[in-house]
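Hey,

Quick one before I head out. I ran the complex with copper (II) ion overnight. Inputs first:
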Amino acid sequence: MASRSSLIALLVVVSCAAAASATQFTVGDSSGWTIGPNYSSWTSGKTFTVGDTLLFNFATGAHDVLEVSKSDYDSCTANALNTFTNGPATVTLTAGTHYYICGISGHCGAGMKLAVSVGSGAPAPGGSPGTAPAPGGSPGTPSAPSSASARLAAAPALAVAAGVLVKLALF
Ligand SMILES: *[C@@H]1O[C@H](CO)[C@@H](O)[C@H](O)[C@H]1NC(C)=O
Ligand SMILES: [Cu+2]
């Protein structure tokens, strides 16, 4: 009974840690979403992962955010797949490359365009990201536990907290 509730508490702690690892990126940093910043420079050197969020800081009415196709991004065509009219706007990233432009006339052409490539995250240690596990890999080493322990290793304080919970459950 006690161990079951402690296990649930442990699961809650672990899922909170996973949620806390998501990063919020403020588009254009202190400049925000406006005419002026070079958003392709802004994205360079950043790694975007599924679940991360983009915060577009702009005054409602002055700008907006349209998610568009690559060709509409390239040509600054305001053919929105998703529209965010109210600023500031928060967008949660899913896998793939996402293209955002400002739909106010002339703004995209003046540089208000942002392309973000989002990886699936959690690359296998020592493997290249996105590489599928080799089929028929050695049966004694399932991949799930190793990735779980890798996650715990990345958060030693969490591992200690989890260990305390487990001890509480046992004694
Ligand atoms: C923005 O920066 C990229 C490289 O980071 C550069 O290739 C591009 O020409 C710049 N765009 C403008 C409009 O300056
Ligand atoms: Cu604009």
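The chain has one domain: 23-170.

Talk tomorrow,
K.
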